[in-house]
Write a structure and sequence with these properties.
The complex is a heterodimer of chains A (about 120) and B (about 110). Chain A is an all-beta fold and about 120 residues long. Chain A contains no helices and 11 strands. In chain A, the strands form 2 sheets. In chain A, strands 2, 4, 5, 6, 9, 10 and 11 form a 7-stranded mixed β-sheet that branches. In chain A, strands 1-3-8-7 form a 4-stranded antiparallel β-sheet, with no helix packed on it. The chains are: A mainly beta (about 120), B mainly beta (about 110).
Chain lengths: ~120, ~110
């Protein structure tokens, strides 16, 4: 079974540009999470989808970030316009509830560098 | 919100020795505590987890202990091997279907 995949693996853009990250969860997983790790800091939660609905977006830093999950399959995270402080590694995780318990499986991440 | 503290930030041990990483959390409502291992260029991989109705859990060379009263939990790796070298993250969560709150990570180096 394929794991969580993310594209691109790396992205280098200039301040003010737009970048779109994509996450493909494990097939059949209803839950999809976005996290971010800024250099030297902890991995921080951004938002959580259940199928196509945003369950919790309390971690989104500001309105320059837009996440979508049309059709409840893959998800995109768009940063527009990008700022220097947006640099970091963006992780996606997916899970499926079984007997009221879940395990979040992480993708390899997208390393974003804003110059 | 939940605050997870993790120590140490770096840990170097000799092959065959044990390694212990400790985490504390602030929200007494947290009841799920996973540990992830991240190798270079890869995403975090779950290695073991524990829920609040259990005090200890073991899987081969890896064990996790939980003290809910003191709000701390620890990862124990015995008989360490060079391939255990990685960054380890602890996390806490209220329940299934909620965001994970991570510690800052521990970079473990196992030297032959």
């Amino acid at each position: 079974e394929a794991g969580v995949t993310q594209f691109p693996s790396h992205s280098v853009i200039e301040k003010g540009q737009t970048v779109t990250l994509r996450c493909d969860p494990i097939s059949g997983h209803d839950n999809l999470y976005w996290y971010r790790r800024v250099m030297g800091k902890e991995i921080k939660f951004l938002l959580h989808f259940v199928k196509e609905s945003k369950q919790d977006e309390s971690g989104m830093p500001n309105n320059r970030f837009l996440a979508e999950r049309t059709g409840g399959t893959y998800s995109t995270l768009k940063v527009q316009p990008a700022e220097l402080e947006d640099s970091g590694v963006y992780f996606c995780a997916s899970s499926q509830l079984e007997d009221s318990q879940e395990t979040q499986y992480f993708g390899p991440g997208t390393r974003l560098l804003v110059l | 919100g939940e605050n997870v503290e993790q120590h140490p930030s770096t840990l170097s041990v000799q092959e065959g020795d044990s390694a212990v990483i400790k985490c504390t959390y602030s929200d007494s409502a947290s009841n799920y505590f996973p540990w992830y291992k991240q190798e270079l260029g890869k995403g975090p991989q779950l290695i073991i987890d524990i829920r609040s109705n259990v005090g200890e859990k073991k899987d081969q060379r890896i064990a996790v202990t939980l003290n809910k009263t003191a709000k701390h939990f620890s990862l124990h790796i015995t008989e360490t091997q060079p391939e255990d070298s990685a960054v380890y993250f602890c996390a806490a969560s209220m329940n299934s279907g909620y965001a994970l709150n991570f510690g800052k990570g521990t970079s473990l180096l196992v030297t032959p």
